[in-house]
Write a structure and sequence with these properties.
By secondary structure, the protein is of the alpha/beta class. The chain has a domain at 8-166: Alpha-Beta Barrel (TIM Barrel). It has 10 helices and 9 strands. The strands form 2 sheets. A 7-stranded parallel β-sheet has the order 1-2-3-6-7-8-9, with helices on one face. The two termini are 36 Å apart.
Amino acid sequence: MPVNRMGFGAMRITGQGIWGEPPDREAAKRVLRRAVALGVTLIDTADSYGPEVSENLIAEALFPYPAGLVVATKGGLTRSGPSQWHRNGKPSHLRRACEKSLQRLRVERIDLYQLHAIDSKVPLEDSVGELVKLKQEGKIRHLGLSNVSVEQLRRAQALVPIVSIQNRYNLSDRASDDVIDVCARESIGFLPWYPLATGALTRPGGALDSVASRHGATIGQVALAWLLHRSPVMLPIPGTSSIPHLEENVAAAALELTDLDLDTLARA
């Protein structure tokens, strides 16, 4: 399923703390429609964003979905309040979560369903095994994983083909370098979450600031351009509730970093 490499993460269209409704539902839906108009063909969400709010907004704004649009969602996290996240990889929970996502997104099959996180209290094989059953039932087209190591990827691959990995990764947090390298070798898409958390690199005079000045770009655009350069399987999904910020993020795909830029960022 081909998608444009700059996607959209639909976590930030919910309320504060990724909890409840956004301040302006119609504004959130306008952001989603603008993303599609800008050529975004991959929207990433999860049942826990809101919870349920993000998926509902996506369906309200975009259904019936345009040809070529992939709406990916996730299950395996539950919520007890703003900024509170709890892992639940029980097969019964994952089945219920997937079937509820199907209803909210108004589809008969989810193109990409991702296990949001490994639950240490449940064997990975049990969690993934239930998703395999849902795939066999025609409710899931492709399976992905989130927040996993190479070893966990291998265990899942023993059960089913894995088409995507979604781990935390950005210019200042490269802990998943080994996972990205495996993804590149095996043509597995890598969706970096928290792609703009550049930390100290955003300070005035820092590496990102220096490169951004040379291009007349923003620091965020340089950070996204670096991700795209890092690997051909990289699929950034920056999220926002603002149309101007969305347009800025999508425009980063056209930014071409020079060898000098990459050297500057490598020494940051």
